[in-house]
Amino acid sequence: MVNVLALNCNEHEGLLNALVAHLPVRVSFARFDLPWEEIAARRRGVTTGCVTPVSAELARALSEAEVIFGFSLPAETSVLAPYLRWVETPATGFDQLRFTGVLENPAIAVTTVGGLFAPEVAEHVFALLLALSRRIPFFAEAQRNCQWLPGPVMELRGRTLAIIGLGNIGTAVARLARAFGMVVTATRPRRRVLPAGLVDKLYDRHDLGEMLSAADAVVVSVSGDEANRGLLGAREFERMKPSAFLVNVSRGFVLDEEALVAALREGQIAGAGLDVFVEEPLPVTSPLWSLPNAILTPHVAITLASRLPRCMEHFATNLARYCRGEPLQDLVEQMPRDRSLSEAPHGGRATE
């Protein structure tokens, strides 16, 4: 019998139990509430120094767990859970699992939900892009002040959208851009076969500046890899058109926020739509709050009522594969993609 620990899923306990009822598993439920400040710090590769306590109930469940389904885990989980062989995080990224020990432990497989929510994130990208191009914040303020202020807006049809990071989310953004009649360019993807006709022009990474200079809008959807830290800074913003918009749904540290603030203030670019930030929650002292050409949303692109149930379905499918000793779907890049879990402590298969 495979011991499964599900964190912060109590409100959907019945659903998860029903989804795995046919599998030889035993599911226990527990809570672990990590402050968002600590989650954001982990994603930046640091910690706040505060250790969130582990209850006796959770410690007991961790000590028996072979599989964990949870967004964020306690520090040093790999020590607290000696039988742990697999973690699935209900997220598209896995950097919130830093400092738990599971990413560094070759005996523990880590999976995400992959591109499960790519279409929804793409919707958020276009919500921000449409708000910028149609000047929605300006007109909303005029409405609050009972002012009739007609003014020019910008169409998307025929404009060039540059996508930095053509993974699951970037591909979904490209599909929506096609529906809007946009010209689509992107940085060249690695290990990905693109649908025919999806992108008009691909650029190598070292030609990023050339791609930016031709774009009317830029969407950043790269992974939260350390290699992408500071990917866009003053030099890149200088290459963009003064009429261009920037949308970031990647990670905050991918942008140099100080350089972005300067570019927005000086009119180097026309506006920015941001769902992610270097520090989250965004400090009240950040100048981004008061910039009229910046639209901010608090990391909510997949804050959906359907999110956790859909993640559970993904997990249940993967759990069935685990019980059969089959390779897991959506393994993080550090893990070999053809990895079988037949070497797990309990065989990677259910045992009596």
How do you describe this structure in short?
By secondary structure, this protein is an alpha/beta fold. Helices cover 30% and strands 14% of the residues. α5 packs across α7.
Provide the descriptors you would attach to this structure in a database record:
12 strands, globular, 11 helices, 30% helix, Rossmann fold, 352 residues, alpha/beta, 2 domains, disordered C terminus, single chain, 7-stranded parallel β-sheet, 5-stranded parallel β-sheet
Structural summary, described in words:
The chain has 352 residues and is of the alpha/beta class. It folds into two domains: 2-115 and 304-323, NAD(P)-binding Rossmann-like Domain (Rossmann fold, 3-Layer(aba) Sandwich); 118-296, 3-Layer(aba) Sandwich (Rossmann fold). Helices cover 30% and strands 14% of the residues. It has helices at 13-19, 36-44, 56-64, 77-80, 118-133, 136-144, 168-179, 208-213, 234-239, 257-265, 307-323; strands spanning 2-7, 25-30, 67-69, 86-88, 109-111, 160-164, 183-187, 201-203, 217-220, 245-248, 271-274, 294-296. It has a seven-stranded parallel beta sheet. It has a five-stranded parallel beta sheet with strand order 2-1-3-4-5, with helices on one face. Strand 10, helix 10 and strand 11 form a beta-alpha-beta unit. The protein is globular and about 65 Å long.
Quote the CATH topology of the largest domain.
Rossmann fold
Nearest-integer average pLDDT: 92
Radius of gyration over C-alpha positions, nearest whole angstrom:
22 Å
Please tell me what the overall shape is.
Answer: globular
Tell me the distance between the termini. Answer: 5 Å
- Runs in which pLDDT lies below 50 for 5 or more consecutive residues are 335-352
What is the CATH architecture descriptor of the largest domain? 3-Layer(aba) Sandwich
Could you name the CATH homologous superfamily of the largest domain?
Answer: NAD(P)-binding Rossmann-like Domain
